[in-house]
Amino acid sequence: MSNNNVMFQVWFVMSYKSEERDISESEFQEEYELRKYEYLKRERIRVSNSVYRCTYCIGKRYYHPKELPQHASNLDRGSQRRTRGEQARHRALERFVRRYLCVEDSSEPPTTTQSPAVCDRDKERLFVWPWMGVVANIPTQVKDGRRVGESGSKLRHELATKGFDPVTVHPLWSCFGHSGLAVVEFKNDWDGFNNAIMFEKDFDLNHCGKKDYVTILERDRGQRLYGWIARDDDYKANGLLGEHLRKNGDLKTVCGKEAEDQRKDAKLLCNLTSTLKEKYDHLREMEIRYEETTQSLIKVMDQKDSMVKSYNEGMFQFCKFAKRVKQKKTISGILL
């Protein structure tokens, strides 16, 4: 066998092994990234409404929601010193953030700063306002002929511990006792809306959202709680839930609420501008009065100075005249 044939066979074997290694590494990267993506569904990366953490960085660095995908993207495509494991973990983080947190790339200007937690597709969806959530499948038991379940304060404490900051929790009761449903009320501002959205996403990540509650048979739900943000279908529903929502809330879209807030802000700005103008006019009037009073006072002081000067000149002349008269009398007395 010639040397050329031997070299060709060696080159062919090495190329095949290199290609096989690249394929296996690629498959490993994809599998590793998928496992890290599934891990993020169980790991809490949300610290507060405006702060998230990178659970894969040493020291657990914190970021604004719009900065987190950019951070993950930079580490994925960044320095060659990054290991493939780091890049795969941050690809999983970027994928997770864009899928579940509905944040935009920080390099793009934000379209709105009032409701950053909601996706564009939900802008026209009707939500119950004040913002409310629904918790279903609450465990109950029969006691003294009625069904009883955990109190609203306990459930509120559990939700507050997760960072959702609920205002209050209302368990729904019927003539038979606890219905297994509860309505969670959030603050009626945009922070409250963001908390309600994160409340829903938290249940979705654990496959305990409304879709899961509806599709899973009651006997297969077990002891898990299900939750979602209250929307128009809940508001219009028959039964305890619909009655409670209609009694305590209204239906509003995110766009409608934003427009309402803008109208209120514009009205407030107009009122403040009017008040400021009135205060300015009053201040200007006081300045004019002050200037008039100052000028009048200066005029009076000038008149006073003039009178004092005239008085002093008159007294000087009088004293001078009296002195001459006295001198004349003295001279006349001597001559006589």
Can you put this structure into words, describing what you see?
Among the domains are: 27-110, no CATH class; 120-248, Alpha-Beta Plaits (2-Layer Sandwich). It is built from nine helices and eleven strands. The chain has helices at 3-42, 68-77, 84-100, 152-161, 190-205, 210-215, 232-235, 240-248, 254-335; strands spanning 46-48, 51-53, 62-63, 126-129, 132-136, 140-143, 146-149, 168-174, 177-185, 226-229, 250-253. It is elongated and about 150 Å long.
Label the CATH architecture of the domain at 120-248: 2-Layer Sandwich
Output the structural class.
alpha+beta
For the record, give the distance between the C-alpha atoms at the N and C termini, rounded to a whole number.
Answer: 174 Å
- Judging from the principal axes of the Cα atoms, what is the shape? elongated
Largest sheet: 4 strands, antiparallel
Rg (C-alpha, Å): 42 Å
Number of helices: 9
Strand tally: 11
Query: Can you give the helix content as a percent range?
Result: 55-70%
**Mean pLDDT score, rounded?**
78
